[in-house]
């Protein structure tokens, strides 16, 4: 045991620690602790570099490549998910519209189940009359104007012809 005590004494240099008048003893302890921490951190970092066998720049490049690969791996399924979600929303809107149309058609079917309603529709849309009734057709002046078209007027361009047909007609009539 005595030898152990001596070894401790030798480590310290065989002298008592003297406090310098410039730095308090507490500051020296904190300074020693921070140096130890820095040394451990540097040792850990250099140990990681030794294990991987790469410099800091190479490790950063590998990390960047891994992050990019993960981003691309996630991007395609995410895009597919978002597009399918939009498709589902569009189909749900279409389904709601079709359900509304079905409800309207069922209401119309219920209306037409009455024979009086069917008769009224036949009179209005098909202009049917019952036997013994006299039908009257009233034509208004604006109806006649739409029916009359000037046929003898050649200066007006013919409706329904393509541009090249009108061009050919103008060339052949000019002779």
TrEMBL record:
This protein's UniProt keywords: Coiled coil, Membrane, Transmembrane, Transmembrane helix
Record bears the keyword Translocase: no
Biased composition (Basic and acidic residues): 141-152
Transmembrane segments: 60-78
Coiled coil (UniProt feature): 86-115
InterPro entries (UniProt xref): FtsL/DivIC (IPR007060)
Superkingdom: Bacteria
Region annotation (Disordered) ranges: 1-42, 136-161
Protein name: Septum formation initiator family protein
Taxonomic lineage: Bacteria, Bacillati, Actinomycetota, Actinomycetes, Pseudonocardiales
């Amino acid at each position: 045991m005595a030898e152990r005590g001596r070894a401790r004494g030798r480590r310290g240099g065989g002298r008592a620690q003297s406090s310098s008048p410039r730095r308090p003893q507490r500051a020296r302890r904190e300074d020693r602790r921070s140096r130890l921490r820095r040394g451990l951190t540097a040792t850990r970092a250099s140990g990681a570099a030794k294990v991987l066998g790469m410099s800091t720049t190479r490790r950063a490049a590998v990390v960047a490549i891994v992050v990019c690969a993960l981003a691309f791996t996630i991007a395609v399924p995410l895009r597919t998910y978002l597009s399918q979600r939009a498709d589902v929303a569009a189909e749900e809107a279409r389904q709601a519209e079709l359900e509304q149309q079905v409800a309207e058609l069922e209401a119309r079917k219920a209306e037409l189940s009455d024979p009086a309603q069917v008769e009224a529709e036949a009179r209005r849309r098909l202009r049917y009359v019952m036997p013994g009734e006299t039908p009257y057709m009233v034509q208004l002046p604006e109806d006649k104007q739409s029916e009359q078209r000037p046929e003898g007027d050649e200066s007006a361009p013919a409706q329904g012809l393509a541009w090249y047909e009108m061009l050919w007609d103008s060339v052949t009539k000019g002779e």
